[in-house]
Automatic annotation (TrEMBL):
Domain Ketopantoate reductase C-terminal, chain residue ranges per copy: 178-300
Name of this chain's protein: 2-dehydropantoate 2-reductase
NCBIfam families xrefs: apbA_panE
A family per Pfam: ApbA_C
């Protein structure tokens, strides 16, 4: 299998390294010159619970890649999805499949502008990943992948992907209820990621206050209501448990939106909280808490 990892940030590098270790030919694609240079010059260093290992993988801009892919795994931020897949058009052949494991709602629809619907797979992942410095990433703990074809028909490549990920130490499953899994992650991120970013805090201090816990509960319930209105039943209890775990066991974790704000970058809030608001409007319900958080974040990230 020849695979491009589109978006060589923390998550993309972890998957790229692990899949290369089980025999896949992996090429990393990014727009960050420092990241590309570091990987090409010194290799990709991955730090895990088992220690450190250096992987020699090619990295480049999309325009500099030439070979058509068997598979493209997309890890770019959701706000860059359309531009990113457009940059890959010359690398997409009749047999190329594209798997999105990004945050947010609507990524598969964006990919469909350049990829046939029956060649798009959508999913979610809980694999931990952190970018330490250019060319250096860490992944401590375990994680999993759930995915499913957008067209609902199971092409042979799904078994190939699952098998490779399992061999790489990543639990993988094809899940016909993938929409629920995507919504679950979106609601969790809309609650914990956006709130922590706006308040400039990690989950621990948020969970240490009654008002913080109450705010998270309200956001989760509102998000689950919108999901149900859109035709996707959600287990809100499971998301409440995820939020509690975040506030207790991962109390010092710096959410990605907070990292973006601190780094002066735009966040994914439009495709997370904003997507919940758009879905609410489309199905005749309202999401005032998420709309307030969305608009406050849009103001904050542009200050």
């Amino acid at each position: 299998m020849f695979v491009y990892i589109l978006g060589a940030g923390a998550m993309g590098c972890v998957f790229g390294a692990k899949l290369s270790a089980v025999g896949w030919r992996v090429h990393l694609i990014d727009v960050n010159a420092k990241q590309i240079a570091a990987i090409n010059e010194a290799g990709l260093q991955l730090r895990t619970d088992s220690g450190e290992r250096n992987y020699r993988l090619p990295a480049s801009y999309a325009a500099d890649a030439k070979e058509k892919a068997d598979l493209i795994i997309v890890f770019t931020k959701s706000l860059h999805t359309s531009d990113a897949i457009e940059s890959m058009k010359h690398l997409i052949g009749d047999r190329t499949y594209v798997l999105t494991l990004q945050n947010g709602l609507g990524n598969a629809a964006k990919l469909a502008a350049c990829v046939a619907k029956d060649h798009i797979l959508e999913g979610v992942t809980t694999v931990p990943a952190e970018l330490v410095s250019p060319g250096v990433v860490s992944s401590h703990g375990i994680g999993a992948v759930q995915f499913y074809p957008v067209a609902k028909e199971m092409p042979p490549i799904t078994k190939v992907i699952s098998s490779a990920m399992e061999s790489a130490g990543i639990k993988a499953a094809t899940d016909p209820e993938i929409k629920a899994a995507i919504w679950t992650k979106v609601i969790f991120n809309a609650t914990m990621n956006a709130t922590c970013a706006l308040l400039d805090t990690t989950p621990g201090p948020l969970g240490g206050q009654e008002d913080g816990v109450a705010l998270a509960k309200t956001l989760i319930e509102e998000g689950a209501m919108v999901a149900r209105a859109s035709g996707c039943p959600i287990d809100a209890a499971g998301i409440h448990a995820m939020a509690k775990m975040s506030m207790t066991q991962h109390r010092d974790h710096i959410p990605s939106m907070l990292q973006d704000l601190r780094g002066g970058r735009l966040t994914e809030v439009d495709d997370i909280n904003g997507a919940i608001v758009r879905e609410a409007r489309a199905h005749g319900v309202s999401a005032p808490m998420h709309e307030t958080l969305w608009r406050l974040m849009r103001v904050r990230e542009r200050l």
